[in-house]
Amino acid sequence: MESGSMTTAPGGLGNKRYLYFAFLAAGALAAYVLSQILTYAWEYFAQPKDFVVMLVSATVGFGGAIIAYRHPVVNQLANEVIAELAKVTWPTRKETTAATVVVVVVSVIAAIVLGIYDAFWSWLTDIIYVT
Q: Fewer Cβ close by (within 10 Å): the C or N end of the chain?
């Protein structure tokens, strides 16, 4: 396997599927944003034609995604990001549960301590300023 290539299972896409999905999602997002902008701009002149807005938006959005996918620098960067993300080891359910319990317990303790400090300072300022 050459340097920088993605791992693929026989008959499958492997990690490449994330690359394809990312470009597809970026194209869909670009098409949606462009359709909102075109509709907003077109409303100043006349009632927008939905078919034309969607056609132009989809063409520009997905065309831009295809152009970005075929661009060597963008494609190489995306492949490198996916290769790095493939190296990530995610915590197990047990580790996640333990970490969550620690965060909740520490948050409760911090809230109690801050509440005690607040009550003390409130009592102290009442004594100083009220009398």
A: C
Q: Does residue 81 share a domain with residue 21?
A: yes
Residues whose CB falls within 8 Å of the CB of residue 43, separated by 6 or more in sequence, listed in order: none
Where in the sequence is the domain holding 14, given as residue range(s)? 1-88
**H or E, element range at 61:** helix 50-70
- In this predicted model, what pLDDT tens digit does every residue of 86-122 receive, in sequence order? 888 989 999 999 999 999 999 999 999 999 999 999 9
C-alpha 47/C-alpha 44 separation (Å) is: 8
Buried/exposed 15-48: b ≥16 CB within 10 Å, e otherwise: beebbeeebeebbeebbeebbeebeeeeeeeeeb
Q: Within this chain, do residues 78 and 131 fall inside the same structural domain, yes or no? A: no
